[in-house]
Specification:
This protein is α/β, with parallel strands linked by helices. Helices cover 34% and strands 18% of the residues. It has helices at 2-20, 40-46, 55-61, 77-86, 90-93, 136-143, 157-164, 192-199, 204-207, 245-249, 254-269, 300-323, 358-373, 391-396, 401-412, 424-429, 434-441, 501-509, and strands at residues 29-36, 63-69, 99-102, 107-110, 119-120, 150-154, 170-174, 181-184, 212-213, 236-237, 279-286, 329-335, 355-356, 379-383, 386-389, 418-423, 451-455, 460-461, 469-470, 480-484, 490-497. β7 (170-174) and β8 form a beta hairpin.
């Protein structure tokens, strides 16, 4: 009897598994939507303003993971998107931040700078070669023998290059000086649709001067923040006579319309999803703050940004349905896992913390090291919460690097506002703990510094890189949504790791995961 019951349990388990598993059809098109600074709590707070065919359609009809974790320090638009598309942390893929400090040249430069390639519609020199491992788009190109088409469109170069990868048919971004869709000569294929748009009357170059950002909705509907102080019909113009007008434009919801417009042109005219092999369209949108908002903490602008983004997603989904079919398309939406805001503290309120001046700490540390090791310039620079030493000087003088780093760390950790100091020796050779591993995941040799400083929450870092930046360690809900091809609607409360997304997409495409991807396939996608 027990054997019979056991057999029945096995039969029912297998039957249930097959009932839940996908049919095995490979999607004809993957549409990867990365939304920079998307917050899950904002989706909940603003959903009463959304229609039924954008965010609400994805949330009700998709496989929704409530939260995604990036397991390394200070993710930004470059490091987070590269992590998504490689399935690996910066310690493997090499993109530790939007910019990096080059000690040999004593200057900051883009993490994607490549002097070997010129730009099209830009003077910037960029390529995806600084990504040290393969991406999901690379693997699709390899699997299809180069026949799959892969295109990426994003506001910024780092986003486009990270999502397009090394083998893309084209990766395009909005050029900071002219507003044209730019790319790099690294990619050999021309895309007539992009060239036509750049030369048309509808190019952003020709239209941006006439754009004014006003509330698209009655501000009475923007009531998610009961603490909003400035309830006003805001108005922001993108004056072409100002040097930073395109930078500000990229912080507005209008940049999302530009990305959607190009995606729709590609879907309607580019033949995506119409070939034997699957194609891949990578899109990056913006859902962060606008720095000119009068009330940075609780702005009407951020609510209007989400309202407009909801309409752009509706437009995009409608065109996907009309051209390829939602059931033939695998769509995934992922957040970059961070949120930038300038904290506004009312006059008269005294908070904990204080001001941390990196240049002063750097100077004091160098004086301390002079007293120990001699009168040399031991510290090269402070950059992005890291201290860089003159490694060649240490090598020439045969000074033990591990001991040198440890003494420097012991000195710095006594500074007001410093929570902890992690040395590269600890990360690479020291005793393991979760905090050290966390920093190790964000370290790449030859790019990262020698010491990582963890500044206490509430302290304001005052330097040229982040003027008036106050440290916050709040958790940000970062949703992930899978929608379309054979996806069963479900909401999952557990937190997943950013490195688990593309191995799961690769499984659905029946291709290899990127070569540094160690994340598990999400069981709900089996």
């Amino acid at each position: 009897m027990i054997r019979v019951l056991s057999s029945l349990v096995v039969i029912f388990s297998i039957t249930t598994l097959y009932a839940q598993s996908p049919t095995g059809e490979v999607p004809k098109l993957v549409v990867a939507i990365t939304i920079d600074q998307l917050r899950g709590d904002y989706l909940e707070m603003f959903k009463h303003t959304f229609g039924q065919k954008g965010f609400n359609r994805l949330l009700s009809g998709g496989l929704v993971y409530n939260n995604l974790n990036y397991n390394f320090p200070k993710p930004d638009k470059a490091s987070s998107i590269t992590t998504i598309y490689t399935g690996a942390n910066p310690s493997y893929h090499g993109i530790t931040a939007e910019n990096k400090y080059v000690i040999s040249l004593n200057r900051e430069e883009s993490s994607f700078f490549d002097n070997n390639y010129l730009g099209n519609f830009t003077s910037d020199k960029r390529s995806p070669l600084p990504i040290k491992v393969s991406t999901i788009t690379d693997e699709l190109k390899i699997a299809s023998g180069g026949l799959s088409e892969v295109y990426a469109f994003a506001p910024d170069a780092s986003q486009a290059l990270a999502s397009g990868g090394h083998a893309a048919s084209g990766a395009f971004w909005i050029e900071d000086a002219t507003g044209k869709w730019a790319t790099t000569t690294f990619y050999k294929n021309k895309q007539p649709i992009v060239d036509q748009q750049n030369r048309s009357d509808q190019s952003l170059t020709n239209t941006i001067g006439s754009l004014t950002w006003r509330p698209a909705n009655d501000i009475a509907h923007y009531k998610a923040f009961p603490y909003t102080q400035n309830r006003y019909n805001f108005q922001h113009r993108f004056n072409t006579d100002k040097a930073d007008y395109i930078r500000l434009f990229k912080q507005s919801p209008f940049v999302n319309k530009e990305v959607t417009d190009m995606a729709i042109m590609m879907l309607e005219s580019g033949g995506l999803g119409k070939r034997t092999n699957p194609d891949f369209l990578a899109l990056t949108f913006y859902a962060g703050n606008f720095e000119k908002a009068l009330d940075q903490n609780y702005s009407l602008e951020i609510q209007d940004t989400y309202w407009r983004l909801d309409r752009e997603l509706e437009r995009l989904l409608d065109v996907i349905e009309a051209t390829v079919g939602i059931r033939n398309t695998l769509i995934f939406v992922v957040s970059t896992g961070y949120f930038k805001e300038q904290e506004v503290i009312p006059d008269g309120i005294v908070t904990t913390g204080g001001d941390f001046y990196p240049d002063r700490s750097q100077a004091l540390l160098n004086m301390y090291l002079m007293a120990l090791y001699g009168r040399e310039q031991w510290v090269k620079t402070y950059y992005n919460n890291q201290i860089f030493f003159d490694s060649k000087l240490l090598e020439d003088l045969k000074i033990d690097m591990a001991e040198f780093q440890q003494k420097a760390a012991e000195f710095l950790v006594q500074s007001a506002g410093v929570q902890d100091v992690i040395t590269t020796h600890q990360m690479l050779h020291g005793a393991y703990n979760e905090n050290i591993q966390f920093y190790r995941n964000g370290y790449y040799k030859g790019i990262s510094g020698d010491l990582f400083l963890e500044i206490q929450p509430g302290w304001r870092i005052i330097d040229w890189q982040n003027p008036d930046y106050r440290v916050r360690e709040n958790a940000v809900m970062s949703p992930v949504i899978f929608f379309g091809s054979d996806i069963k609607p479900q909401r999952i409360d557990r937190t997943i790791d950013a490195t688990e997304v593309v191995p799961s997409v690769a499984y659905r495409l029946r291709i290899r995961a990127p070569n540094a991807a160690k994340g598990k396939i999400l069981p709900e996608l089996f």
